[in-house]
Amino acid sequence: MAVKLRLTRIGAKKKPFYRIVAIDSGKARDSKYIEQIGTFDPISDPVAIRIDAEKAKKWLATGAQPTDTVRSIFIKEGIIVPSVVAKKADDSKNEAIDAAAKKI
Description:
Layout: E1 3-9, E2 18-24, E3 35-41, E4 48-51, H1 53-61, E5 65-66, H2 68-77, H3 84-103
Parallel strand pairs: 1-5
Antiparallel strand pairs: 1-2, 2-3, 3-4
């Protein structure tokens, strides 16, 4: 069972509100989840994010994979530290593309 940390929508039409949950990766977006970690309200000004950091870190430590959106929320909240290795990999890809473009 692969566990994902992802958003599940509970808001009304045109008024999104999301829960950040730990859920089996094979289940549908709004199906039954294992545990709720926090909430995300993109409509409020400023954007309201509430996360139980201990639960999030526990799930990350056990191998749960966050989706891209949840990963960016965790980075903004300081739960995940941005990886320098990933940035270096992106830079090396850009250098390879630049070198290929110069050859043309």
